[in-house]
Every structure is written in C-alpha cells, then in structure tokens.
Amino acid sequence: MDREIIIEAEGLVKTFGSGDNKVVAVDGVSLRVYRGELVAVTGESGSGKSTLLNLLGGLDKPSGGKITVAGKEITSLKDNQLAAYRRRSSGFVFQFYNLISVLNVEENLSLPLNLDGREADKKELDELLKMLGLEERRYHFASQLSGGQQQRVAIGRAMIAKPPCIFADEPTGNLDSRNTRDIVDIFKRLIEKYGTTVVLVTHDRNVAAEADRVIIMQDGKIIDEKVKSI
Questions:
Q1: How deeply is 229 buried, as exposed, middle or buried, from its count of CB atoms within 10 A (0-12, 13-18, 19+)?
Q2: pLDDT truncated to tens, each residue of the chain (230 aa)?
Q3: What distance separates the 2 farthest-apart alpha carbons in the chain?
Q4: Which of 1, 215, 221, 226 is the most buried (most CB within 10 A)?
Q5: Hey, where are the domains in the chain?
Q6: What is the pTM of this model?
Q7: Could you tell me which of 71, 73, 51, 72 has the C-alpha nearest to residue 63?
C-alpha cells in the first residue's frame, strides 16, 4: 500500500537580502514526508535546516517553489489564511519553551484552542496530560517545572489541536540526555496514537538516530538522506 504523503515541497527557495548581500538559505529543495513519519533534519549551522522547517510549517514564506501540507497548498495563502493554518494544521516546538508564565500547565496547553475561539475537551486534555506525564503538574506554573517538564508542556500545546504535523526546532537543545530520551519517546507516542507526522531539526546524533529518516543539509541543499533500516 502506498504511504500517504503529508508534506510535499517542490523546488523550494528562500533568499534574504539582495545584490551583493543576497543569501540563499534554501536552494531548490524538493522532498516528501509521509503520515506518521519521524524525520530529523541535520546539518552544520547555517546549512538552512531551520529555514526549511519554518517554510514547511508556514512560519515564513518561500521566495520560490511550492509547499503542500495535508493536501493544502500553503504557499499561496494570504497572511490571515496562513495564521489559521498554523493554528489548526501545524504545531510548533522550539528549543526555548515559550510558556506563558502567568498561566498554569493546563491553561498553557489549552491556549492554542482558546486563541482560535475553542475550548479544550476535558477528557482529551486529561488524556494528553497523562501521556505527557504531567497529571500531577496540571495546576503548576512554568517557574515550578523542570526544563524537561516545560518542554513536555510545549509539546502538548503543539498537539492540543491534533494537527497532522508537528515541527520542532532543536527541541532537546536545552535538555540533558535523560530528558532528551523522554522527549523523543513522547514524539513517538504521539505518532503511534494520533498518526502525527513529526519533522525536527537537531544537532544531536542520538536524536537523529531515533528518526525514521534523516535529511542532511549543506549550503541550503539536501545532500543526503538516510532511512532507518527495520
């Protein structure tokens, strides 16, 4: 059976500046990512991996090329349409957790739905808190959580709307090896339970080794791909 393509990029280009100051951050990238796949994007600093992630997630617009996510072509969307796409069809996790300090865990998790005029379903919220191992921390504030716990909240916040894709930029960059393993395990559980697709940027070889596929970038191009043998 053919796997369902969830992300497709064709001839993707992103440039910054002009003339002598022009920088080509992403240079003609084409790729496909499948439903339920964990993909790691690696490469040296400045290779274009974070720029590629931002383009795929709709945080930035390409200078050329086309991106289709879950059957929707996002490159031609207007700003308000793109904002709605980000709220409903993609989740984001960053190296810095970006939690709202005056909100507790449950409120931080529910925030994306609230901003979209919706309320979190209590049963689904309880289920997510259990999966994240945060049941006993639901009324705690960010300052009362460890770094690993804060990142789990950030992942839950990204997942609360059940988007088809989660984009994570160095999600374990501030964590020790034990918390890093926990975060990777949570991503895998989300994939198994919801069929979520996860694309993450990482410098950590151990994290990349857990992915189904590793995409290696250099100078804005994909120079190699490694598929995990089963």
A1: exposed
A2: 578 999 999 999 999 988 888 899 999 999 999 999 999 999 998 899 999 999 999 889 999 999 999 888 999 888 888 888 887 788 899 888 889 999 999 999 999 888 888 888 889 899 999 989 999 999 999 889 999 999 999 999 999 888 899 999 999 988 889 989 999 999 999 899 889 999 999 999 999 999 999 999 999 999 999 987 65
A3: 56
A4: 215
A5: 36-61+77-227
A6: 0.91
A7: 51
